[in-house]
Design a protein that fits this description.
By secondary structure, the protein is α/β, with parallel strands linked by helices. It is 30% helix and 18% strand. The chain starts with 5 loop residues before the first strand and ends in an 8-residue tail after the last strand.
């Protein structure tokens, strides 16, 4: 912090509106990004998403320690923004995100109806030896069945990910993910779905 590379969420500019039970959270400053020659730029902390951000970070670090290369959601969202600026009408075949136009014709489901392609940014993408191995979603709270089904269908239609790992905090969310996945048509069901319990090491309660 003395070098100006980290900002304490408790005392720095990002402190505004932070959850009161977050006692110490440090975020990189502009100088840190410059120092690491990062392709990303500093952004304000999304304080309503602090718990999810911490959880995704913990899961990503665990996979890095296990020998995977990890693509974070921030990198994925940066790539989506760049693709949007090109005004391309379709999702690239090698995209690390999901597009609503993916896989429709190949599955006999027709084609995209036109208009802007909706996207979903994966929380984490796991690669090893430059090969995409899996997508990871960290689901700390239950979505509506409709929203969850939309995301799962997009995974099922995409040929990019060989498996999908969902990390959930409890049995309620676990059963919802499994139930909604089982309700989908076979050709729209995500391949290699694994649902695992996640117990965060950070304490925010």
């Amino acid at each position: 912090m003395r070098l100006g590379l980290l900002e304490d969420l408790r005392t720095g500019p990002s402190n505004v509106g932070r959850p009161r039970d977050v006692h110490a959270l440090y975020v990189p400053t502009r100088y840190a990004y410059d120092y690491r020659a990062s392709p990303l730029t500093p952004q304000p902390v999304a304080l309503t998403h602090v718990r999810h951000t911490l959880a995704v970070g913990e899961v990503g670090l665990a996979y890095q320690r296990a020998g995977f290369d990890v693509v974070t959601d921030r990198l994925v969202r940066r790539d989506i923004a760049r693709w949007r600026r090109t005004r391309s009408p379709s999702t690239p075949h090698d995209a690390l995100w999901l597009g609503s136009d993916q896989g429709l014709v190949g599955m006999g489901l027709g084609s995209h109806s036109g208009g802007q392609v909706s996207t979903h940014a994966t929380d984490l993408v796991l690669t090893r030896d430059s090969v995409v191995r899996a997508a990871v979603e960290v689901e700390l709270t239950a979505k509506s069945d409709r929203d969850l089904a939309k995301v799962l269908r997009m995974y099922g239609r995409s040929a990019r990910f060989g498996s999908l790992i969902y990390y959930v905090p409890d049995g309620k969310v676990e059963q919802q993910v499994k139930r909604v996945a089982a309700s989908l048509a076979h050709q729209e069901s995500p391949r290699g779905l694994v649902v695992s319990r996640y117990s965060p090491r950070h304490s925010l309660e």
